[in-house]
Fold each of these.
Amino acid sequence: MSNTFSLSKAYEKHFKIGAAVSHLNIDSYTDVLAQHFSSLTTENELKYQDTEPEEGRFTFEHADTIFNVARRLGIKVRAHAPVWHWATGEWMFKDGDRPAAPELIYERIEAHTKALCERYNEDVYAWDAVNEAIRDDAPGDGDESGIYRSSEYFKLCGPGFIEAAFKAMDKYSPKAQLFYNDYNECVPEKRERIVRLIRDLREKGCRIDGFGMQQHHFAAPRLRRDQALYRGLCGTGSAAARYRAGCFPYGRDQSRRDTSEARRPRL
């Protein structure tokens, strides 16, 4: 038996140790990934802009690079994150020269989900089905526009696109865990909006197994805020996954430059 320390082995009875990886450099990190990690998360490779830049034209080359390494190392993938407003092509929201009707957008989400799941289901243990659909501030009178981000998805569909995404993912990937993913989850006002979303989805019959917390801290996190978040999630029946945790010693702009220029996995 090897005496070499492994982070993932040390915690395997409790939780997975994950790394966010990019197709640009994953081959440079295979040794450390094999030794210390039990989960891989795609950075951008499963988002619409990478996998379906035009309707019906699928481009899986970047995602395949990550999945090929994952298979070789025997590591399952946490698949992030198909439905995200920043990485969806304009074709999703158009019907010729007109805005697309909600029903057409739901059909496109389902077709895209089917294609992803048919290709990668055997290697995926969890999907971040929807990413960052909740707004950071809360203007208005407490109606839906004060809860959800004013994305093209929301402008055309209201919150229905979130329900459509989870139901499609449940249909085509019934064995994987399904997560909603977001950031600033420890800010009390946003936390309440996230908890409300999860409760609403469950009331509508959606399977949602947990909430992925991005945990992008730019100062030391406050334990009491984390505890309040966990208590709120317990009331929804959903699990919490501490996802992509990181604490940066610089300001927000500097930390983003430092991590994006090298395109390094946050190990």
Amino acid sequence: MSITLPAGLPAASVLRREGLFVSEAPGGQGPSLPHLRIALLNLMPTKAATETQIARLIGSAPFHVDLTLFTPPSYAPKTTPIAHLETYYTPWSEIAPRRFDGLIITGAPVETLPFEEVYYWRELTGIFDWAQRNVGRSLHICWAAQAALRHAYGVPKHQVPAKIFGVFPHQVLHPKASLLSGFSDEFHVPVSRHTEVRRADLPTDRGLELLADSREAGLCLIEDRVRRATYMFNHLEYDTDTLAGEYRRDQEAGRPITVPKYYFPQDNPAHPPVNRWRSYAHILFWNWLSEVHRSAGQAPSPLRRRNDRGVQSSTARRPAGFTPSATSAGLGTA
């Protein structure tokens, strides 16, 4: 369980205190584990918090992860000092020629805008296309999942009457799916969305498989075998107090907001929330990295994961469409 982060990244000290092995040099050697190169396209306004959340989850899996941070070329942060990006993030011009085993794209606070009105939309769709040639597997979170489905399949997003906000029970629809290995039949996930993707809008002949959903919160997790992508519309990566921070932020700003459902004990914000999703976050990211590892074509001793359905072993395979020697293409201008 180890991870390499950009030198000086604040997340490093946090994760060291939690017991993770953190190195701060490219290709830094931790324990003897398979190495995976993961890129994180971080579009969240809370950059440092998101860096820590994602690094914690991928750094706890049985791999050594080299994590590279980046944003679209024209991206201008509103709540994070530009010096943070200049210090810890790699310019797109240096990302584009490279290949990565995995790519994670976060949500962004732009979900109420039409996709084409997001100023970096053309750059983002270029990154989606680049990933098909230069990345083994991709994980898209919240708005990024909606955006990827729109670009690949024309799937629309829909405004909901009131923000879907809370920690909602979800149901596993395909218990034999490798991404859900180790999950209970029902699990809780933080949700914080003003929009949704609907099942009726998903193409039925393009290899999309809905793995989990919620009766109250809608779609949760989709696997796309054709594009080697996973779409997670909610936020298993969130910390215990993330929804509380969003709730108080919106209250202070005078925005219409209700107490997040199933989050505070007795729905009372005076009580500290209880984290009921942490273990599932670790399981999902472990399972996703295991898929990334298999796609990378590495074949050390097989990983074995035990759950209530028995023992599963990994086998090495390369994904269709991903050529290790492929060269990248640049992006269109925004």
Amino acid sequence: MARKKIIFVIVEGPSDETALGVILNKIYDSNSVYIHIIHGDITTKNGVSSDNILSKIRAEITCYANSNHYNKSDFKGIIHIVDMDGAYISDANIIEDTSVAGTVYSLTSITTSNKSNIIKRNRQKTANVNKICTISTVWDIPYRVFYMSCNLDHVLHNKINSTQRDKQRDSFEFAKKYEKNVTGFLSFISESDFSVKMPYDESWDFIKKELHSLERHTNFGICFNMIAYCGLNCGKCDAYIATKNNDDALREKTAKLWSELNHTTILPEHINCSGCRADGVKTVFCESICAVRKCAMQKGLESCGDCPEMKKCPILGAITANNPDALKNLKKSLS
């Protein structure tokens, strides 16, 4: 059996790990992927600058790799989640009030007893974030950074100034809520009014403007792009939903329906799929029969949206003719 690949996840605090750890392990196929999470805000650590932040991130990964006798080839990717903390707002929106203990965030301002410290922190954080949001690899491992704004508690719980006790309680409840409802989490993080549904680079341009880094926004949904090669959304497929939620009743229902539609025998145990472009188990059709998937993989394409023959492809046309959203998804990949 092939050795599991590692997805290395960097979050800012222990409550972030509590909220997301179980869910990430459910999203990624546990037979082929191992999730390892560390926490700490590297973007504001003393001595970390845009000149050395990449080497600091690399040091975290190589330290873990060396301690566990891994090579870079053992890693599938790096997911880095950062809180925005209003880092990109104007200094004029930072209010000094000596009666305030700590730092208080709102949708329009940061109130603090030491304005100069917050300005200094914001300068450091923005310089470092500006650096890491433009890179695609660290130690030759695919890397992407995603934001929670104003912070993770704001996005997940709609609370902007949580106490440590609140953070732990809310994170536990969040993980409990979505542990057996992965598709619900994917919908929450990708389709809510705070979800930034833009291409990756554009999502970063957005958060840097006006007061967006104080407001409730996240681009984390981009991390879970479930769009198949043909443009269909695997996240809405009953086989995917049954797999991720381990729903045997849905497996039986889907097997019966697909058997009738395809005039063949499909058993409930055949209804297991991690998604067209994801690692892990596939339905027999996706794995061995789908002509679109075979063609795109042979050409090394991210999706049919990258193919110059997309508009005149009869196989794809048969799909998009009955599924206009698939064509919209492919056109988005071209933008």
Amino acid sequence: MTWDYAGAKGGLGRLLEWLHDSLKDLGAQVSVGSPHTTKDYKPLLPCTASFGEHWLFSILLPFVLQRWIDTHKITHLILPGGPGGVMLLRKPKRCTVIVYIDHTYAQQSRYVPGQKWKRIFTPLEHRTYTMADQLLSVSQDTTKAVKVYYGFDANTIIPIGCDAIDQKPKEKKLCVYVGRLMSRKGTSELLQSWKEVKVSYPDARLVIIGDGPLRSIIAKDNSITWHPALSHEEVLQMLGKAQMCLCPFYLEGHSLVCSESQRCGTAVVGFDADGIRCQIDQERSGILTPLGDVHSFARAIVQLLADEDATVQMGTYAQRHISSHFSTTKAVARLQEVFDFS
């Protein structure tokens, strides 16, 4: 159940899409309670996803949730927790409540520039976790944050399954960024770093895939190509032929861009941030740099551009690493344990 189930669109949408499809493959009957969806939709609230977002959805939910659960004979209620998720104000009866946590408001207020004010939402987030029968998280970093900042154990870690795909020939000096253009994704830091990279490699190219509130800061630059949106297949193709993927993110739950880059056999340069560090084997599958340090980030990019063979080797190792730790088989097996399917 979520305020906006629009399919594989954005990180949370991709996460919920994978969860939905995996549960169905395991034999579960899945109903989606959301104002906006095309899959297994069971009407829940008349408000649209674009109006009020998850806050309006959370406020109205107590008035209709129990009837919806009873009508559709729901045994397990799965909610996305944290930023963009559902705040549970009253615990429903006659079903098991599971909160699936990507990242938390405590992390967002601590690490993302200009977002300290979001700590005001942590009491509501804490209340939601107190009403959960089980907490699931997408990464070791999120599990640690839930324990440290909220005092709860979210022991079951279930990221999206990620299997290797065939490697593509690399294009020299091609770097790719995929993500929303916003402060949490380090858009400004990316562009500052890129200016330093061009001093050493004027012929380097940067492809930016994504849109968002910081789109206006993308300067007219012959070295930068901007795509507001591409299909998932096109994104994978671009990641596959890149020499490296750039992830200057301040906070993630389990970065899909980071894992899919490695899935394609592409090395990653990223900030040493929650949701990134748990995926990178330092100096083997990628390079982590201090959070927010644009100069270190630029130096890491230059280091990999200077040694094409080492970068290819790093990408090959990254593909093996991500497949062994985050395979679809392992992720689905974890789901089966949680829901005790037989």
